[in-house]
Write a structure and sequence with these properties.
By secondary structure, the chain is α+β, with helices and mostly antiparallel strands. It has 3 domains: about 15-85, no CATH class; about 105-265, GAF domain (Beta-Lactamase); about 390-535, Histidine kinase-like ATPase, C-terminal domain (Heat Shock Protein 90), CATH 3.30.565.10. The protein contains 16 helices and 13 strands. The chain has helices at about 30-35, 45-55, 60-105, 105-120, 150-165, 170-185, 190-195, 205-210, 230-235, 270-350, 360-385, 395-405, 410-415, 435-450, 480-485, 500-510, and strands spanning about 130-135, 140-145, 195-200, 215-220, 240-245, 250-260, 390-395, 415-420, 430, 455-465, 465-475, 515-520, 525-535. It has a 6-stranded antiparallel sheet, with helices on both faces. A 5-stranded mixed sheet has the order 8-10-11-13-12.
């Protein structure tokens, strides 16, 4: 019989089989492989089998049966091979995914990996996905993140970028977290805002998926009685998958996935794969949330510990200051009594001496030095008493006016006027009257000490923000460098005893109470003293 196919030949020439393509030249001399790979599907071989059947060849039916069975087996093997390859890729993909989910404590990293896995072609290949999470009070499901394209052009650009870069899932998730996480939230902001569902709404499709702890595939959403029409309009798709995220009976949230661009049907295999994927994602989200909450508690404890340490240091400092105050007060009182006796006797003797008596100069020096020592002791006693302030509500205008009246004799002796410009309706201040009076009195005395005779001192008050300001303007005084430095360093050494104590002590007293003392050089000459008294609440 003349055969049209070359199956019966051990070796053939190239022109005898038109179905052998370039790169398959080895089939010319390999009869068995040529029959299995080419001849069984060759039209000429089919013709030869038919000719055998027509000629009454008894083996012809057997050839037909064996050929068809072999071809069916080949198709099944190819299908099984594709299925095994798909499962291998899925297992490799899930292993890579679970490695990240089991080790990460960063919520953003977990979300980036999860959402990338759902929408990436190397993952589950969905076009778009939304994540809704339960709030801390378990009252609402709120839209948290959306991932995917909104238009076909954007989708095409994303697919082209993915194919060009050829990154692994982990690399894609890392790039998404760094470059796109914030922008995706902004891109889907309008949809995420409308995806707020009360957990008390038991009839809602999302709550039903959480309650039943199973995925729900929604078809024909716009005409589905189980789907809220406004919810379907928000998503803008007719079919989507609702995947609940639950861990140990704790409701975490839901993932909504759809194919809004390609409109590819979501298969049962897609649902099963996503269901397998949802459990580790839910567990990872719970762990990250607990870690975040633990970190917040650690931060709170750290702040509380720091405040406690500061309070302990303050207590120690106050104990030391109280000890210093008691010692200072004891020494000052011990010195003050004999000093007053010395000053008193010197003043009595000074009254009885004549003008030309040589002892008058010595007695005058004793009186002057005794007066200066008394002033220093007064300041030291005021400082020790400032460690135990007694606060009450006071009208600062009355305080200022009373001090100016007390110093009226001093103003007249220095031929200096005192002009008061006191604002009306100032708030009552919760202050220590004795401390604030001492500070204002000391500032006015310092202004008189550092000025030439004549002119006037202006005392003003006004309300600014949450503070009341007391300002003393003296355009006829200047401070030496040593006196100015003494405002920074308490008890600084200066040429005159007592100069380095008053103003620095005022600054210390005010700052301890939360107030402030500052000095400025006036543009036209002179000095401005500003006391800023904060409005503390009475406690």
């Amino acid at each position: 019989m003349d055969w049209t196919c070359c199956w019966h030949k051990d070796v053939i020439a190239p022109e005898e089989c038109p179905y052998i393509e370039g790169g398959e030249e080895y089939l010319y001399a390999a009869q068995r492989r040529r029959i299995l790979e080419k001849c069984l599907e060759c039209p000429r071989f089919t013709v030869d089998i038919q000719r055998m059947r027509d000629s009454g060849e008894q083996l012809a039916p057997l050839f037909s049966i064996l050929t068809n069975e072999f071809l069916d087996m080949r198709i099944r093997l190819q299908s099984m091979d594709g299925f095994l390859n798909s499962k291998t890729r899925e297992i490799r993909f899930l292993h890579e995914l679970n490695t990240v989910l089991q080790t990460s404590m960063d919520l953003d990293e977990i979300l980036s990996v999860a959402m990338t896995a759902i929408t990436a072609g190397k993952g589950f290949g969905m076009n778009r996905a939304f994540l809704l999470m339960c709030d801390k009070e378990q009252q609402y499901l709120r839209g948290y993140l959306g991932v995917g394209p909104r238009t076909y052009d954007e989708a095409w650009h994303i697919w082209e970028e993915v194919s060009r870069n050829d990154l692994s899932l982990k690399e894609m998730a890392r790039q998404f977290q760094i470059n796109k996480l914030s922008s995706e939230k902004v891109k889907f902001h309008d949809i995420l805002e409308r995806l707020t569902i009360p957990l008390s709404d038991q009839d809602h499709i999302l709550n039903r998926a959480l309650r039943e702890k199973r995925p729900i595939m929604v078809e024909d959403a716009f005409h589905n009685s189980q789907v809220n029409f406004q919810f379907a309009q928000t998503l803008g798709v007719d079919s989507f998958l609702v995947m609940p995220l639950v861990s140990s009976n704790r409701r975490i949230g839901v993932i909504i996935a759809d194919n809004c661009i390609t409109h590819r049907p979501i298969t049962q295999q897609d649902i099963q794969s996503l269901e397998t994927f949802a459990f580790p994602v839910g567990f990872a989200l719970v762990r990250a949330s607990l870690y975040e909450r633990l970190q917040e508690e650690v931060d709170k404890l750290t702040v509380a510990n720091r405040k406690l340490q500061e309070q302990q240091e303050l207590i120690v400092k106050m104990e030391k200051m109280a000890l210093v105050g008691r010692i200072t007060s004891s020494i000052a009182h011990s010195i003050r009594n004999p000093l007053m006796v010395i000053g008193g006797f010197a003043r009595s003797l000074l009254k009885d001496v004549t003008v030309d008596d040589p002892k008058k100069e010595y007695l005058g020096s004793i009186v002057q030095e005794a007066r200066q020592l008394e002033d220093v002791l007064e300041e030291i006693l005021n400082y020790s008493e400032s460690l135990y302030p007694v606060k009450d509500r006071w009208d600062i205008n009355q305080v200022v006016a009373g001090i100016c009246r007390e110093l009226q004799d001093r103003f007249e002796a220095e031929q200096c006027g005192c002009q008061m410009e006191l604002a009306n309706e100032l708030p009552m201040l919760f202050i220590d009257y004795k401390q604030i009076s001492y500070c204002i009195r000391t500032i006015l005395s310092s202004a008189l000490d550092y000025r030439v005779r004549g002119g006037k001192i202006i005392v003003k008050t006004w309300h600014e923000g949450d503070a009341v300001l007391v300002c003393v303007d003296d355009r006829f005084s200047t401070l030496t460098t040593s006196a100015w430095d003494s405002l920074v360093t308490p008890f600084a050494e200066t040429q005159e005893l007592g100069v380095g104590v008053g103003l620095p002590l005022c600054r210390t007293i005010l700052e301890k109470s939360g107030h402030r003392l500052s000095l400025e050089n006036l543009p036209e000459g002179g000095i401005r003293y500003i006391i800023q008294l904060l409005q503390h609440k009475e406690e």
